[in-house]
Amino acid sequence: MKIVIIGAGEVGFHIAKKLSEEKHEVVIIDKDPRKIRRINENLDVQSILGSGTSPKILRELRLEEADMLVAATDSDEVNLISCLLARNLNRYMIKVARVKNQEYLKEKELFKKELLGVDMIINTRSMMVETVLNLMNVPGASEVIEFAGGQVKLIGFSITGGSPLAGRQLISMKAIEGDFLIAAILRGHRIIIPRGRDIIQANDLVYIVARSSDLERVLEQFHINTKETKNILIVGGGEMGAAIASTLDGRKLNVKIMDMDGERCKELAVMLKKVVVIRGDGTDRDLLREERAEDADMMIAVTGDEESNVLISLLAKDLGTKRTITRVSKLSYMPVVCSIGLDTVINPRMFAVRAILQYIRRGKIISVVPLREEHAEAIEAEALETSDIVNVPLSQVKFPEGAIVGAVIRGEEIIIPKGETIIKANDRLIIFAMQQVVPQLEDLLTVKLEYFA
């Protein structure tokens, strides 16, 4: 595919990196010479110094031949104008726009085909709020991802030395009651798509897939905390913190939000009804102790400074906070931050990458979620009647080493598959795969050539 990216910031850079690694033809445009220099020094893509709102530049790069345009600058207006120009130059290309302004997002007509024709809107704020709510619903998890409209959940959690899973061979899990599948294991910086003889070790991060209706029972058997989240401390009253607080406001929860800016605290106090607003520095250990951080079921660090967020979360963990969520914006920090003992690290820019991947995968892809450090993916796809995956037992399907089917959704039925399970046409599949075997997996999911004979 030929993909044009407007904006070479953190989001644009990382999308370009991901797509170029997968051998797509990538063109990235930015008017900042420093960002273009960074692209040239680090990525094997075509870069253009200029504005994504320039009709001349868009014509020169032959936008009519492109398959997708991703408008990912920090300016909503630039992103929307780029999509408008793209619509006139190439009506058939996929258009993805990053939009932050809630006023624009409320104007649904703006994005329809008659005007901008945007295929997908990326709003990291709403994605962040949804992620926090999912984590609140599964308190013992470090990652919660929903599929099939919430009917199936992928849960990531750490294995302690005292866990009943530690030292267990996967084949022995059949004795544990409840339908689930261990879909992936993160061990250090290595992701494993497991087989029956693999052994779970202490300090592994394990991903399980289960029906939402079975989840509580499964988690209890693994000794994972299912106690309801009640006491929440949010540090950072900016756009993200305020959005989370507003969503939780009015619920039967004890929520506090802390910010250093006195004027911002006044604004938050007017905006929020039941959330307690505190003026103060979240990196102040004495203040955290005074606000009883040790009693918090969840502490969410979302200030504009990622180093402060990491420090706040470490202080909270040391004081006894049960779970921490830490916002880190620089993707290069993720491997280091994830390895120092924080429960959940969220990168808003990764949400943008997740949203775009579904459009570049071959086959009828519904959603794609990169797992930790992006070495593996969870893919939600529809089984096509003419693909090699249907009408044969899973044990006979030539899956590449490093891929596994975690769930099959057939109408209202959710199947946690076994070797004898037969996939039927139009089933929705949740598949977990190492990044390097995704092209082989795509071949299984696409139409066979003899279909056209």
Helix and strand layout, with pairings?
Layout: E1 2-6, H1 10-21, E2 25-30, H2 33-42, E3 46-49, H3 55-60, E4 68-71, H4 76-89, E5 94-98, H5 102-106, E6 120-122, H6 124-137, E7 143-147, E8 152-158, E9 180-187, E10 190-192, E11 205-211, H7 215-221, E12 231-235, H8 239-248, E13 254-259, H9 262-271, E14 276-279, H10 285-290, E15 298-301, H11 306-319, E16 324-327, H12 334-338, E17 344-346, H13 348-360, E18 364-370, E19 376-382, E20 403-410, E21 413-415, E22 428-434, H14 438-445
Parallel strand pairs: 1-2, 1-4, 2-3, 4-5, 5-6, 12-13, 12-15, 13-14, 15-16, 16-17
Antiparallel strand pairs: 7-8, 8-11, 9-10, 9-11, 18-19, 19-22, 20-21, 20-22
Helix pairs in contact: 1-13, 6-8, 6-13
Structure in words:
The model is unreliable at 449-453 (pLDDT under 50). Helices cover 30% and strands 25% of the residues. It has helices spanning 10-21, 33-42, 55-60, 76-89, 102-106, 124-137, 215-221, 239-248, 262-271, 285-290, 306-319, 334-338, 348-360, 438-445, and strands at 2-6, 25-30, 46-49, 68-71, 94-98, 120-122, 143-147, 152-158, 180-187, 190-192, 205-211, 231-235, 254-259, 276-279, 298-301, 324-327, 344-346, 364-370, 376-382, 403-410, 413-415, 428-434. The chain has 4 domains: 2-122, NAD(P)-binding Rossmann-like Domain (Rossmann fold, 3-Layer(aba) Sandwich), CATH 3.40.50.720; 128-221, Alpha-Beta Plaits; 231-350, Rossmann fold, CATH 3.40.50.720; 357-452, Alpha-Beta Plaits. It is of the alpha/beta class and 453 residues long. It is built from 14 helices and 22 strands.
